[in-house]
Amino acid sequence: MRYQIYTDGGSRGNPGDAAIGGVVYGLKKEIVFEFSKYIGVATNNEAEYTAVLTALEWALQHTTGVEAIDFNLDSKLVVEQMNKKWKIKEPRMLVLAQKCWDLIKELGIEVTFSHVMREKNKEADLLVNQALDAHQQ
Fold it and tell me: Most buried by CB count within 10 Å: which residue of 15, 78, 103, 116?
């Protein structure tokens, strides 16, 4: 079985109020898990990485019988950096990326990262905005 995970992170201000969201889909496209959380003040990229980290931390506890995880993000930057195709110049981003790589190693299964257009990531984007809206009320 493969999980399809869609994550997103956003910031209103960059840096500014930031939130993360994500949806994990199972074999039959059913939602297995979802999250939506305000994370404080951060940049868009920090939020994107934090969303991936949150999904990986969840996966560590829920991958029995799972052979692979396919991440789908609308952040080309994070996808290319996680795939080690683009350098990470910002030290804070490198720390977050290294945490992701460490968790992937700990998972011990295939993990891929693909870029998707924003329209294909609507559910995760909605969860980000719900967390931001709830915080700002």
Answer: 78
Distance CA 4, CA 36 (A): 17
At 3-17, the pLDDT tens digits run 999 999 999 999 999
Overall average pLDDT of the 14-28 stretch: 96
Query: pLDDT tens, 56-67?
Result: 999 999 989 999
pTM of the model: 0.97
DSSP 119: G
Instruction: Walk me through the domains of the chain, giving residue ranges and CATH numbers.
Output: 2-136 (3.30.420.10)
Strands (E) located in 26-126: 31-42, 68-73, 110-115
In terms of Cα–Cα distance, which of 59, 78, 51 is closest to 3?
59
Q: What's the rounded Cα separation, in Å, for the pair 54 and 59?
A: 9
- Tokens 């977050």 -> residue: 96
User: Of 43, 37, 50, nearest to 12 (Cα)?
Assistant: 43
